[in-house]
Amino acid sequence: MKAYQHILAAGLLGAATLAQAQVDQVKVWAAACANCHGTNGHAQPGMEALAGKDKDEMLQKLLDFKNGRKPATLMHQLAKGYTDDELRAISAYFAAQKKQ
């Protein structure tokens, strides 16, 4: 294998590892939602399920909680702990989950 092929292979491996780490980070953030919204957004009856919901609507709700535009007992405090980009990633994660 030539030197440039080794460099290319190492770069691809590094990119794959970074992508996996990013996916795992989103799962960590989403796990914080499980107490109320269930694992992977599959909530128990009486709680709001997040799996398969529209990501843009979910993001807007989260941003409204964060900025105090939507009243809440808990969500406004939780949403403040994330950046807008993190909330965007969390919304995309739950939107990608299959509804039950």
TrEMBL record:
Keywords: Electron transport, Heme, Iron, Metal-binding, Signal, Transport. Residues 9-98 form the Cytochrome c domain. Residues 1-21 form the signal peptide. InterPro entries: Cyt_c-like_dom, Cyt_c-like_dom_sf, Cytochrome_c_Oxidase_Subunit. Pfam families: Cytochrome_CBB3. Gene3D superfamilies: Cytochrome c-like domain. This is Class I cytochrome c. It comes from Tepidimonas fonticaldi. The lineage of its organism: Bacteria, Pseudomonadati, Pseudomonadota, Betaproteobacteria, Burkholderiales.
